[in-house]
Structure formats: structure tokens, C-alpha cells
Amino acid sequence: MSVEVTNPRSGRAIANRIMVYTFLLLAAALFLMPLAAMVFTSLKSMPEITGAVGFENNTILTPPRAPTLEAWSTAWSSACIAVACDGLRVYFWNSIVMVVFAVTLSVGLGAVNGYILAKWRFRGDNIIFGMLLFGCFIPFQIVLIPMARLLGILDMAGTLSGLIFVHMCYGIPFTTLFFRNFYVTIPDELIKAGRIDGAGFWSIFLLILVPVSWPIFVVSIIWQFTNVWNDFLFGASFAGADARPLMVALNNLVNTSTGTKAYNVDMAGAMIAALPTILVYVVGGRYFVRGLTSGAVKG
Amino acid sequence: MKLTKTFAVLACTSALAAPAIADEVEVLHWWTSGGEAAAVSVLKSDLEGKGTGWVDMAVAGGGGDAAMTTLRARVTAGDPPTAAQMLGMTVREWADEGFLGNLNDVAAAEGWDDVIPPAVQAFGKYDGNWVAAPVNMHRPHWVWGSAKIFSELGLEMPSTWDEFFAAADKIQEAGYVAVAQGGQAWQEATVWEAVVLGISPDLYRTAIIEADDAALRSEGIVESFEIMRKIRGYVDPNFAGRDWNLATAMVINGEAGMQIMGDWAKGEVIAAGLTPGVEVLCDVAPGTQGSFLFNTDFFAMFDVGDDKQMAQQNMAASAMSVNFQETFNLAKGSIPARTDVPGDKFDVCAQKSMADLAEATASNTLFGSLAHGHGQPAAIQAAYTDVVTQHFNSDMSAEDAAAALADAVMAAK
Amino acid sequence: MRLLRNYVPQLTLLPSLILVAITVYGFIALTMVLSLTRSKMLPRFDRWEGFSNYLKVWNHPRWEVALENFAIFGILYIGGTLLIGLVLAIFLDQRIRIEGSLRTIYLYPMALSFIVTGVAWQWIMSPDLGLERAFHIWGWESFRFDWIKQSDLAIYCVVIAGVWQASGFVMALFLAALRGVNQEILSAARMDGASGPSIYWHIIIPALRPAFLTAIVVQGHLAIKSYDLVVALTRGGPGFSTELPSTFMYEFTFSRNEMALGASSAVMMLVLVMVLIVPYLYSELRNER
Lengths: 299, 413, 289
Hints:
A: 13 helices, flat, B: alpha/beta, D-Maltodextrin-Binding Protein, domain 2, 2 domains, five-stranded mixed sheet, four-stranded mixed sheet
């Protein structure tokens, strides 16, 4: 797999190892810095954050001296977001529902599309693929107004299904790309064998390809989950009042510049909003790299 | 097959979103901070007492920019909210597009014409019809001073720019930050418009309200940029990007001597448990005594179906009630848009505003604030702000700035 | 019936195609038309302005700043993520014991939106709250990090946060590609006595060409789309010194009620995207069969 830079037994090699580790750990510390600032602040009380008596010389990177989970429980269940003082928890479930539907639909469609474009060649299939791909690169700000009109025409304005529809539309190009590049690497012989056994279009897909596609499912799900969960622009514009996602609520909590701010609650709220995606990366990170290895980054 | 499945799922999910009930109002606003949200809650419970439900659509961020983006998406989709918080010029622009409803009945019943200052009516009415309910009047050109620093150094609140800079020198010598400034374009524009008004109300009228080319190139505007440059010299190096409330906190905590900011700064003072006019001194910006800039928050009413009219009119009536305007403005730091609300519960700064308002109305020196959406339409307002912030954040000369300002404003017109 | 069955793949693809045709190409076409109108607050197609909107954008001082910043940001962001991503991937590929944890640490910024991390970044960069203050308290009195307060340096703060967010993803791409390098060639090179660094330089890095291409395209389009980053960190300031094309477009369309000008800038952004993407798509699809 890897290439040892020098002979592993020499003194120079040991020095090299130390250098490699030092570099990697230093990089890790830098990468963790913003997260540390957030976690530390979320565990402090307001007097500690402002450096009141007893908490002199507090910095954003000083670990909490009197850790408390109070800010977390406030952010979760009793922080005031505009006129409602029920914390983030309501919005959390809105986001979960949205993500489940949007990810399922876009990944499902992407898988089928990728299968067709990789294994059922027809005239112009490459052009179609290219056109789908270009959809990955459209800046979302420009589609805002036309999409609003479209949702109005479809009678889905201000509903959760409208929001899911939008996320599905702009997820398809990515998921199609992932699945197609993955299925291209699967030998055609498998498909041919299936056909000889009498399998049709759907049974080849469901019985032969899907069982071997888990790495790319993981990549697509992680990608879509992150994008949909973290979206603010579409959520603020298209969600109805009763289905507003977490990022919109978090924005209302954090981006208010009047009044004395409860920084610990802001940070705890941000951490709550970040936990699901962090969890997905921690659990799925290994499969993410493995999934990428198995075809998604084919040039 | 896949297609039907897709739509079946979509149909299921749309059942999750409840349709709007007839007798409720959906209100888009950006009042999400503690005091403001509490004030909105007053309106909410008032309406609920009358049997009208409140559906909250708050979108914070960018001083209302995020909320306005959401509003545009909603209107484009053919699904406008019942009411939306807006500044004066925005009310006018939405009315121009023909999306706003008509509040004449409730306005006549409640006598709005008699209690709202004509300058505010000019924004709340379109083509002679009421389209939006004004809830407050902010005054953006105040100087806030730290009582601790001022008494320690034996200073008085300045009433001319010479006094202002003399005080600033002393504060700086004593080791404090002289001027607490937040480095965001709108805050710099807030200072600049106060400077222009202080030079002369006529200059404000011609150069800003009328956006007259000659006035924009005049000596007065050059002078205004010279004053800006001088102010810049008293601002600490870390001002860039600072939120206004953090700048106010510097004054409250006695780290900085003065801040030029609107009366919403009082909200911070009150939240810190202090009294405006006592621990934090207030006076209008140098040279602006006798004049009055205002910005008003309106609830603009959209043209909604007949089934929602009742609730909408209810909301307009509640928002314009003496009771609500008093409660709301006590929390917000502004003064009521209604001139018949008694001032005895308000602090000295607000009482001064109320008195000055009457004076300025009489002497015809009451103007809409440019920096806060009551001077020019958004595109032209932005042209002013661009040049002001560019000048303040570079070493551009006052003459160049005046020329650039006139060019930019003419191009945007 | 039989005929229908022959077209099952195409028919199955059709719904996605229609969706993309409308929501991508239809909307792009609409934006192009919009850029020729006099639309202010909402789209209006009854008053025409023509191409002078493009001239207005092109001559606007903010657009000039936006393009200049985009050049700085684009080059440093793409270059920075590629370099850091590659170095991290190569080092991680040295049979590191704690590879799993390190990889997750490098990847996690990708999971967070700037609504979540924006405030933390503002603090870190701010001299009176963040790193500068922390180092002063810890005894390094002369430490200076106040770029975000300076018009000419603030854009580099945007680069730093951007590189922080995306380097891990590039690392994952390279790591995946490294593990796919043909082992036989490597053993052959070693037999010939090539040393470690020269194997990397002459064999492995050239073999990563496809991964480089993917990374450049992915990062390039992220650079063009970058919006949250600037809003969270500087809101375009000091002054408008950290304006990017995306913030320009948003500002004109939604804050200034100059929708036609916003649309013109969006079309110019799309041209930028196409310059990047079309050659890639072309080579991607031609090389394949």
C-alpha cells in the first residue's frame, strides 16, 4: 500500500516517523480549534465567558473551569427563538423528517440513474450524463426566485414536501454522478450473466447491483445528508411556518445582534445542530474513504 | 412506477404541513432578540385574546435582508404572509408592485390620520390608501456617552463637532477609546447621515432626500467626509466588523467614551440593568438639535383572500393600539408612531425625542433616515453606503469621496 | 408492449431528466432573460434594458473588488486545499496507528455549515477575543493576528476558514486514490533502487492525475459558490473588501432590489463555472470508452 520513505530500521527513519507524527498531530490540533472553542464555550457559564471575578484571563481556548450543561438544556428545550420559547427540539425533528425523505428520494433516484447510464447504453447517454452533471455546479442563489414560482405552480409553496422536492432536484446530479462512476467499474459480465438467467431491468438492479453497492450508498448518503441538513437558504425560503428546519432556527438564535447574547446557549445550539452530521462523519468516515476508493473519484 | 411512487411519497409528506386556518395571521419579521421578541409576544397574546391565531415566521440576519429574501420567495410562489415587517422605502416598493392590501377601513375607524405624523404617513400610505401600520419611530442620530468617563474627566456632552473632538482628545489622553464604532457599512452610514444633518438640514434635504447632483458635489459634502476622517482617527483599530451592540457595550462598561448610534442602543443599556440618561448619557449628534431623522418599522399588509381579511384588520388595529405601542416601544428603545401615547413611562432620552419630534415637524426639519431605509430606494441608498464605507475604510480624500458619491448616486438613479 | 419494454431504461430516466431540464437549464435560461430586463424587486418581463446591465455590473467598483478577491481566493483556496490535502494523505498513508481518528478529525469540518461555525471563527480571528488575546494571556505578548480587521488582508482570513473546511475532503480523495495506485509498478521502481521521495515525485503523484482533476473541479465550483463563508466571517467587510461574485449577486438581487443586475452577475458566474467544468466533462466522457 504505502511507500516507506526510507528503510524502516535506520535512525533517519525513526526521525522521519517522529516528523510525520508531529505534523499530523499539529494539523489535527489546528483542525480541532474551532470545535474546541465551541465545545468549551457551550460548557461555560456566562460569568466565566465574560471573565468575571473568579474567572479572570478566560480565553475562547481555555477549557471550562466550572463546566455546566445548563446551556445545552436551555438550547434544546427552553431557549427563545423569536416568540416561541421551546428551544431547538421542535426544529430538530422537522429537520430529521426532511432529511430522511430528501436523502431517500435523491439517493434512490441517483442509484437508478447511475445504473442506467452505466449499464444500459443508448444513443446520447453520455450527453445526458454530461447535462445532468452540470447541475452540480449551479449556484443556489440564482434558482431561488424561479424555484419559488415553480413551487407555487405545483401548489407546494410553504410545505415540507416542497422543500423536500427542492433538495431532491439539486441532489440528483450528485448522486447520479456517484452511482454512475461506481457502476462503470462493475464488470459487464455480471449483468450479462444475469440476463442469461432471465433477469430483467429491475431484477438485475435490485438483485445483482444493489447488494454490492453499499460503499457508494454510504458516500451518497453522507454527502446528501450533510448538504440537506446544513442548508439554510432553501429552508428559510421554502419551508412553511410549521416545518422550518433546524438551520433556520439556529440562524434566528445565533444571528441576532441585539440584546445581551447568551454565547454559551448560542454555542450549545450550534453544537446540537452539528451533532447529527458530525456523527454521520465519525461513524461513516471510514466507509466514506473506502467508497471514494471504489470508484466515485475515477477521473 | 417510480414516478407514481415519488408522487405518492410527496402527497404523504404534504399532509404533514397543515393548511393555514382562516382566522389567523402569519407574520414575517426579524425581531428575534430578547426585548423585541418579548414585545412581539405582547401583540401575539393580544390577538389570541381576540381569537386570532399567530403564525410566526421569524428570519433573523443581515438587518432584515434574510427576511426580505424569504418574503420575495413567498410572494413569487403566490403565497404571501398576512403581514410583514418592513422599513418605509420597502413598503413603498412593495406597494409599487401592487401586492399590498388596503387598511382604509380600520384606519378610518381608529383615526390614524390624526395621530400619525405626516412624514410617517407618507410611507404608510400609497396612493392615498393605508397599506401598512407604523409601530414606532426610531431616531438614528444620537451620541451615547459613558457617564463614568465624562464625570471623571469633567466633560459635558458635546453639541458641536469642535466640542466633540475636544472631548474625544481628552478621553483618548485618559487612556480610553474615544469613539466606539462598529465597522459595518450601515453603521458608518448612520454616522455619516448624522454628520450631514448636523452641517445643515438643508444639506440633508438637497443632497440626500432630493439626491441633487450639485448638492452632492458641494462644499458641505466635502466637509462631511472631512469630519468622517477625523472621527476615524478616534476609533480603535479593532472596529472592523464589530456589531453595534458590542460597540454599545464598550460605552456601557466604561471602556469607551462615546458612540454615535440610534436609540435602539438603549435596549442594551436597559438589558445591562442601567438607566439611559443616567449611567449612559444621551444627546443628539452635534449640530442636529432641532432636526429629526426617523426610521419606522411597519407591518405591511399583503393583499390576502377575503377569508383572512378579518384577522388582518384585527392585527392592524392591535398593532396601532395605544397599549401595544407603549409596551412595544418601551422594549425597543424607540418612541411610538402614534403621537398621542403618554410619555411618562418613557426615559428622558425618549421624552426628549418626543419633544424634538414636535419641534422638527413644526419647523419642517423631519426627514427619513437614509441609512435605515427611509431616504432613498434600496439601490440608491446602497450607492451612498458604498462610498461612505469605502471612504471610511481607506485613505480616500474628502474631495474624491464627494465626487465618487455624486457619480455613484447618479449612476444608480 | 414489447416496444415499451425495450425503452424501460430511457423511460425510467425520464422523470429525473425532466426535473433537471426545468430546475437547472430552465432556470438558467430564465436568469439569462432576466439579465436583459429592467427587473428591480421581482422578475418583470415587460421592460427591456438589453446588454447594458452587463456593462453596469462590469463597471461597478464592487464587482471589480469581487473579481480581484475571487482570483486571490480561488487560487489560494484551490491551491491550499490541494497542497494540504495531498500532504495529509501522503503522511496518513505511512501506516499511521491512529489513522482512523486523524482522518475523522481532518474530515469533520466538511460536516459543518458556517452557520454553525461562523461565530467561533469570528472569535478566533478577532484580535480582542480570539487567538491574539489568547496568546497574549499565555505570555506571547508580541503575537499579532488581526488580518480580519484590515481591508487588504481580510480576504486571507476567508481563505484560511475555507481551506480548513475543505482540506479534509481533498485528503479523502487523495487517500482513496493513493490506495488505488498499482502496486506492481511500485515494487518495480523499488527494485530499481528508487528512493521514497523520488517514487512519490515520479510515480505516485503523476498516477494521482485523475484525483487532482476531480479535486480541482470540486474545489473550483465550491470556490465559485462560496457565500456562507464570507457572510459568516466578515459580511463582506471591512468596507466591501471581502466581496466575492456570489455575495455581489446575492446583495444586488435581494438587498438592493436590482434583480436584473444580480442576474447579469449570475450569468457571468455561470460562464466562469462553464470555463472550469466543460473541459473537464469533455475529457471525463471521452476518456472513458
